[in-house]
Design brief:
Two copies of one chain form a homodimer. The first copy, chain A, is of the alpha/beta class. Chain A has a single domain, classed as 3-Layer(aba) Sandwich (Rossmann fold). An eight-stranded parallel sheet of chain A has the order 1-4-3-5-2-6-7-8, with helices on both faces. In chain A, β3, α3 and β4 form a beta-alpha-beta unit. In chain A, α2 packs across α8. Chain A is globular, with a radius of gyration of 16 Å. The N and C termini of chain A lie far apart (about 40 Å). The model of chain A has no long low-confidence stretch (mean pLDDT about 95).
């Protein structure tokens, strides 16, 4: 029996997701809640990166996490162990979250006292990129084993992200991954993206990432 | 300038994809074309596995490949070098292919003389699982870096696949991947799935996979 609460979120009945997302963002601004939308392929390391991020920041700010999945609650169990407020969102087969689903998730989480809320989106490089969730910033994780050509193949995802974390740098020696070519491919899609190589397993690069979050949360709540 | 032809495929205007898929399969049966639908996450190794597969089988049977992507033709260029008949399908942002899009792809490829046609689907563990493409068999690749918990998180994909290839076994020493646990997780979703560990880079396991394809193509064309 899982200790984490599971919420079945329902897709919006409203046609205009962009307007819903803007309204949610305005509401979050008023409440001082910074919402980060974290995306990646399956298995790129969202949950491990998030656990490291919570570990680094939880003494400074109140953190809440929404774990979105088609099914299962394995990630929510992992995150709940960090001590962060956690809720599991089940999407009922949907490949993404829209602003309405995110809003339901925030209500389920009870986010009014949360300073940094993180939505761990469904593992998918296509659909989540098409829906504004109402987040203040979008971040994605590309892992070394996936290859440096991914920005060419999933252009929308890379173009909408403020930050690209390149994870699993510890296995760089075992893969044909060209970091400079990867940076050039990302820049083709999004010249403004902040690119941070990290290793969630060893902690490498996590400081640069959490420094970014500290600045952004402070600026949003100012 | 790309040497591979690029076709923009359009989603079906028909509501009943299942009926369209059955009709396509019947047509393929009549023509003696075996269609394999190959799916995976981004970067799991579909293209490298496919290049190995073509190398092993191209002296025995006529092979045609449809490379589906949101954008880019990097994979089609790789496959065209193997000598197999190749076409690039662009999905116009769509996260999957349905039976109508697959039919357009087969027509664009010119598949009447092809014995083994392969559809390399969009890299995504969610949406492609929801649409019957008309393929005779569905196969997916799960790569070691993604982790052995993926069958728990993407249940539909694992339940509709006849074969699960576990790729990148060469990096098993560098990841916390439990092969036996992975087999148990797959069996939970699909007790009938054939599971074959492979390494597309070194060729390990490719013989078991191509033997399976030889048998299935022969049986379909009998």
């Amino acid at each position: 029996m899982s200790k984490v609460r599971i919420l079945e979120v329902k897709q919006s009945v409203f046609a205009n997701n962009d307007a819903q997302a803007e309204a949610l963002r305005a509401d979050l601004k008023e409440k001082g809640v910074f919402l980060l939308n974290l995306m990646s392929s399956p298995g790129a390391g969202k949950t491990t990166t998030l656990a490291r991020t919570i570990e680094a920041l939880q003494d400074e700010m109140k953190i809440g996490v929404m774990e979105a999945d088609i099914d299962s609650d394995v990630d929510a169990e992992t995150i709940a162990k960090t001590g962060a407020k956690t809720i599991q969102l089940h999407t009922g087969g949907m490949c993404h979250l829209d602003a309405e689903m995110t809003k339901q998730g925030l209500e389920g989480l009870g986010s009014d006292d949360v300073e940094l809320a993180v939505l761990e989106n469904v593992g998918n490089l296509v659909c989540p990129a098409e829906f504004d969730t109402g987040a203040v910033k979008n971040a994605m994780i590309l892992s070394v084993p996936e290859g440096h050509d991914k920005p060419l193949k999933y252009p929308l995802m890379f173009s909408i992200c403020d930050v690209v974390l390149i994870n699993k740098t510890d296995v760089l020696p075992y893969f044909d991954f060209d970091m400079e070519q990867c940076r050039r491919n990302i820049a083709l899609r999004n010249p403004d993206a902040l690119v941070i190589p990290i290793c969630a397993k060893t902690g490498e690069g996590i400081e640069e990432w959490t420094d970014y979050l500290r600045r952004e949360v402070a600026s949003w709540r100012a």
